[in-house]
Design a protein that fits this description.
Blueprint (H helix, E strand, L loop, with lengths): L1 E10 L2 E11 L4 E5 L6 H9 L6 E6 L2 E2 L5 H7 L1 E4 L11 H7 L9 H13 L1 H5 L10 H14 L4 E5 L7 H16 L3 E5 L3 H7 L2 E6 L2 E7 H5 L2 H7 L3
Helix pairs in contact: 3-6, 4-6
Length: about 240
């Protein structure tokens, strides 16, 4: 489905990504793990069109997308849920959800089905649909950010640090929902500070260090790798 092939990204004098290759097959959940500053978020930004690689190719469903606009990439079925949630402050919960449907929807059955699916996954959003999005708790805002991503009807959902800043009691609930989303057929590329949790729920993973992929493989194998355990799993 997605093939990131030998991309470089340079910010000014900083070589953020160096010949990075990542692939995600349809129906998979793939994790990117690594220390802060390793380049994980930059990979997602390159895929979603927020930044341009200086070298390499990004193919989605066989088509090169690395030079496309963000709007065209969203229209192809890729939606990026960024770190920090980015809730639109002047909009209600429902308004935030509706914004993401602009690339595909017509008011009617399709829209309502997507909305009901989001409300089924996140009942709190139904309860607070008329409340301003910025006034939600941190956990509720993360639910809203993920729900907004689903309203875009994605083929591939990019999730950047979904558990960041959440109370421990909420982290498990967020991961449970991520599993359900994947079980519904949505392909996922996940960045997660909690490397242990990311390896528990994903099929495969890539380890980034200093802008390079240094390890990749099945998540269960990487979870048992001594280098990974020492560097990222506290063991």
């Amino acid at each position: 489905m997605l093939h990131v092939e030998q991309i470089d990204v340079i910010y000014g004098n900083v070589h953020a990504l160096k010949r990075v290759s990542v692939d995600v097959e349809s129906g998979e959940m793939v994790a990117l793990i690594g220390a802060n500053g390793a380049g994980k978020s930059t990979v997602l930004k390159a895929i979603s069109g927020l930044i341009r690689p200086t070298q390499g190719v990004i193919r989605f469903l066989g088509e090169s997308i690395e030079k496309m606009s963000v709007e065209r990439i969203v229209g192809k079925g890729i939606f990026h849920v960024p770190e920090g949630r980015r809730i639109f402050p002047g909009l209600t919960v429902l308004g935030n959800l509706e914004v993401a449907t602009s690339s595909w929807r017509k008011w009617g059955e399709g829209y309502q089905a997507e909305l009901e699916n989001v409300y089924a996954l996140f009942p709190r959003l139904r309860e607070k649909s008329a409340q301003l999005g910025w006034s939600l708790s941190g956990g509720e805002q993360q639910m809203l950010a993920i729900g907004r991503g689903l309203m875009a009807h994605p083929r591939l959902l990019l999730l950047d640090e979904p558990s960041l800043g959440l109370a421990p009691r909420l982290v498990g609930s967020v991961f449970d929902v991520i599993r359900k989303i994947n079980a519904q057929g949505v392909t996922l590329l996940l960045i997660e500070q909690n490397a242990y949790a990311a390896l528990q729920i994903s099929d495969r993973a890539f380890v980034l260090e200093n802008g390079r992929v240094v390890l990749s493989g099945l998540s269960r194998d990487l979870a048992g790798d001594e280098k990974v355990k020492k560097a990222y799993l506290g063991g």
